[in-house]
Amino acid sequence: MKTLVTGASGFLGRNLLDVLGDDAVALVRSPLASKHAQVMGSPLDPDAWISQAQGVKVLVHAAGMVHHSRRHADEMVRFNIDSSLAMVRAAKALDARLVLVSTSGTVGCFPYATIEADEHSRYAEPLVGRWPYYLSKIRAEEQSRKLAKQLGVSMTVVRPPVLLGPGDTLGRSTTNVARVLNGRLPFIPAGGIAFTDVRDVAQALARLSQKETWRDTYHLPGTTLPLRTFFERVGEVAGIKVDRPDVPTFVVSGLARLGSRVPVKQLPDPVVLEMSTCHWGFKSLWSHDELGYAPRSHRQTLSDTVAWLRESALRN
Questions:
Q1: Where is coiled-coil annotated (predicted)?
Q2: Strand-strand pairing, 109-110 and 97-101
Q3: What domains can be seen in the chain, in order of their start residue?
Q4: What pLDDT, in 10s, does the model give residues 257-279?
């Protein structure tokens, strides 16, 4: 059963291609140095490549723009929504099924650490709707589901949290680990983080692509930690002492408001600061039993991430 993967040159896409092996077809803008079959084009314009993808039975839309800022967010919002809708139409044209890779942030963000979202939970739009990336993913989910129903396309949404592990060549997903390694952690907010291993998510997606029937939504949870604990554990596996001060939420929120008015180079983007005061609670009702999803130890993931980032720094 051939599976076409968008975002094939990205962190998750490359791992998924490796797991799928000969069943994989990569949708790419420029040729990859890869043994996998490749189709040239953009997820925004399936009409230009649909004839090359005949025989594909599953589309995994893993392409997306991630930009945690309100500055220059319009292109990201348009891409995340429009590409998802285009892939629904592509699935219809190919008589294929669609896996839309979204994010745990659409439902799993809370002001307290004692709450968790499962596959039946409502969108967290009252909280995350102020952040363009998460709002774009909510709208992509909503509008794609609606169009898929209209066109009779079988579609499921998969929501992983932050992805860690080796191979993040663009440096987008492993930013928080790199902050410790680079000594660029100014302070530690009172929020939390949810993360899992990209390799385990790729395995789950590959199993999902081979299933004959799907549920509407699958969560792929991993480990949830307070930021203090997360940064300390990164420090432990890296051999770095993390001694940055804790900063109360009201102070971080004030810094975010300041940064929204006057950019401060020494501080993360205001959206990143706002997110760092929140908690991310996330679980699944069926991913373990139905997809065999069992993420590895988070310490192993952190150790492998640190090792890869250090090797990458030496190579570059």
A1: none
A2: unpaired
A3: 2-308 (3.40.50.720)
A4: 888 887 777 788 999 999 999 99
